[in-house]
Amino acid sequence: MVVTEREPRQEEHSIRPTGWENDPEEERFRLSLFDPIILVVYCQFALFFRLDDAHRDRAAEVLQQGLEKTLSQVRHLCGTLKKDDGGGFSFVKKKATTVRYVVKWLDGPEYPSIDDMEKMTFSAKSLGENDGAFSIDGMPYGEGRAESNPNNSPVISGYQLNFVRGGAMLSSHIHHWAADLVGWSNFTRQLAENCRAVWDVRATGGAPQWPPWDPACIDVSRFTKQLPKDQLIDGPPVAPRHPNLPPADKWEAVLFHLPKSKAAELKALAQPSSPVEGGQPWVSTYDAMCAFVWRHLTRVRVPYYDADRAQQAPWFGESVDMRPRFRNPTPPARMIRNMLTGGFSEMAPAWVQLPTVGELAATEEQTPLSHIATYVRKLTSSVTQEMVEGVLEYIATLRDQQSISFNLMAKPPISLFITDHRPADVTACDFGFARPLTHRFLTRGSVSANMAFVYPPQASSDGGDDDQGTIWSIGMEKDLVTKLRADPEWSQYFEYRGVD
């Protein structure tokens, strides 16, 4: 352990998995065919806690022991991403591997309190001008960054616990090829249970009573395949940033709250008046929310880009977790490796037709919201096990599988990609020292154009708001934010919460 003498107080630990002394000299965990689908980035997942100052030191110790135990289970998160001799990549864990665990005391007046963060909806902006202090150096979010490029042998994960006035924030930096959103939430659930076991020892004495762990939660052998080199083909070239997108500094992520009651109104509004083709007579709350956001973003963008209303919408996509969609066998409920793919408009079957730009931007009388919501429902339903298995078979034939990694910045203006964070809700996780108030995916000002995150309702500190709903973080053009907020129909449902 190294203790830094300057302000703010900081401790840096190089931690090892529990029982590392008996580990093999080297372990290799091959990438699955799911892994290269996802963005090549570091993810920074942040958990926010209320915490009594008297529990700080104990919480830091408990978290360290919990991490050590969890890393002994989720073993591929220790080490680096390395090329394999036969092609492809593996997560490589060596016996001597350590993982960074940093503890910082950011409790001076120059840093926000947990109350300050909560008042700003736990936005990235709520961290203040010194937001970099809350993150581990060298593991930034951002598409096209050298730090996360698999050819540069990036480390897989690092963790930082930040104490602030009245609470704490835990940052988990994880390479996206190692875990998707739900994978991170499953890691967090295992970590919380391990921490709780350590915390309980304080009262009971003796050794922690560890919760069960199933090694199948990191076993993706059914999704690995290595063809002989002479059977491999070149994939599509990696597309550059779309030339018609405004420069990166013209975008910002904006937060909106959709109260639970308003989401219910949208769902009712978006219901088809009669069963749609294919026999699906309903749409979900998710479908309705996505349709409404897509419609209103398109309305403000059409004149900005002078878009042709007669043309099909340029592109729409959504993340789709395949854990509940795969059978024979069904993956373990706490699968931590990637099983994320997407519903992408260009890959949809012929019966899933994109609406036109004009239909998206139309009034309810011209084109009902149900038309757009039904498209979202059809697209989601089209992402089946059989379809994804075909995609994985194609990926196995590629010489450079990174060529098919999701590349949002290459999509044209008026595109939209939505990531639903509601299945990753970890506010019920009991770490012993506290339960999280909410989580956030922090990008530190690196805004992915046309990406929207849907966060679950946050846990309230004072017993709760019965109408607490989802939080939307929407990456959009700065020039259009005021216009969107001025739309009376938009403001009837969505409450502005500031810049993320």
Strands, total number: 17
Percent in strands: 15-25%
Task: Report the average pLDDT across residues.
Answer: 94
Major pleated sheet: 7 strands, mixed
Helix content: 25-40%
Q: How many whole angstroms does the radius of gyration measure?
A: 23 Å
**N-to-C series of helices and strands:** EEEEHEEEHEEHEHHEEHHHEEEEHHE
Q: What class do helices, strands and sheet pairing give? A: alpha+beta
Biggest sheet: strand arrangement = 1-2-7-8-9-4-14
How many alpha or pi helices? 10
N- to C-terminal distance: 34 Å
Low-confidence residue ranges: none
Question: What does this 3D model show about the protein?
Answer:
It comes from Apiospora kogelbergensis. InterPro entries: CAT-like_dom_sf (IPR023213), Plant_Fungal_Acyltransferase (IPR050317), Tri101-like_N (IPR054710). Residues 41-195 form the Trichothecene 3-O-acetyltransferase-like N-terminal domain. Keywords: Transferase. This protein is α+β, with helices and mostly antiparallel strands. It is built from 10 helices and 17 strands. The chain has helices at 56-73, 114-119, 181-204, 260-269, 285-305, 357-361, 369-382, 385-396, 478-486, 488-493, and strands spanning 2-4, 10-15, 26-30, 42-50, 80-83, 89-94, 99-105, 157-164, 167-175, 251-258, 316-321, 340-344, 416-420, 436-442, 451-455, 470-477, 495-499. The strands form 3 sheets. A 7-stranded mixed β-sheet has the order 1-2-7-8-9-4-14, with helices on one face. A 7-stranded mixed β-sheet has the order 12-11-13-15-16-10-17. It has a 3-stranded antiparallel β-sheet with strand order 3-6-5, with no helix packed on it. A hairpin with a 5-residue loop joins strand 5 and strand 6 (89-94). Helix 1 (56-73) crosses helix 3 and helix 4 (260-269) packs across helix 5 (285-305). The longest helix has 24 residues, at 181-204. The protein is globular, with a radius of gyration of 23 Å. The model has no long low-confidence stretch (mean pLDDT 94).
